[in-house]
Design goal:
Rossmann fold; mainly alpha; 8% strand; 179 residues; three-stranded parallel β-sheet; 37% helix
Length: 179
């Protein structure tokens, strides 16, 4: 993503490197089985979903509840400060970190959004394009584990995926065709 403190976080777009990684990942062997694509309303997720949808000849379905955790109380934070606040977000899911939404509440929202998609797509194979913290909170639910930053995507610039059908290994780089 292109991080720009002058632009709202929800409007940050996918970087050129991010576009390259998503394009390189279009060879994933499971990708042709996808029949629907769902995305959060945030620009970087939509950029990703549009690349995938264009490749597969699908439309992008939008679901706002797939959005990243609400960090509007702080907006942009320098990297080290963001990491400390994200650590606090995951460390105590029942308490707000610096005014961010509580992880427990965000997890409930995300699980409900994914349950909705699963109910709507019973005979389909949906692909959900969202965000790292969203995935970590969903993984904790799917695995029946406590909310933990240990389930967050690796610090490799984003562009990772997992399957709730086989959530181990938790995160795989989308541009790794062996994944």
């Amino acid at each position: 993503m292109v991080i720009d403190p002058a632009i709202p976080i929800t409007d940050w777009c996918l970087s050129d490197r991010g576009r390259e990684r998503i394009t390189a990942g279009l060879v994933q062997p499971w990708l042709p089985s996808v029949t629907t694509i769902w995305s959060s309303t945030e620009r970087k997720a939509l950029d990703t979903a549009e690349i995938l949808a264009g490749h597969l000849g699908l439309d992008v379905q939008i679901k706002a509840d797939l959005g990243e955790n609400d960090r509007s109380s702080t907006g942009y934070l320098p990297r080290a400060e963001f990491e400390r606040t994200a650590d606090a977000f995951f460390a105590d899911p029942d308490r707000s970190a610096r005014g961010w939404a509580r992880a427990r509440d965000e997890q409930s929202r995300i699980v409900a959004a994914c349950d909705y998609i699963a109910r709507m797509q019973r005979k389909e194979t949906p692909l959900i394009v969202s965000h790292g913290a969203v995935g970590a909170l969903l993984l904790a639910h799917v695995l029946g584990q406590p909310v933990s930053r240990d389930l967050d995507q690796p610090n490799n610039g984003g562009g990772n995926w997992f399957s709730t059908l086989d959530p181990s290994p938790f995160w795989r780089p989308f541009d790794d065709e062996r994944a």
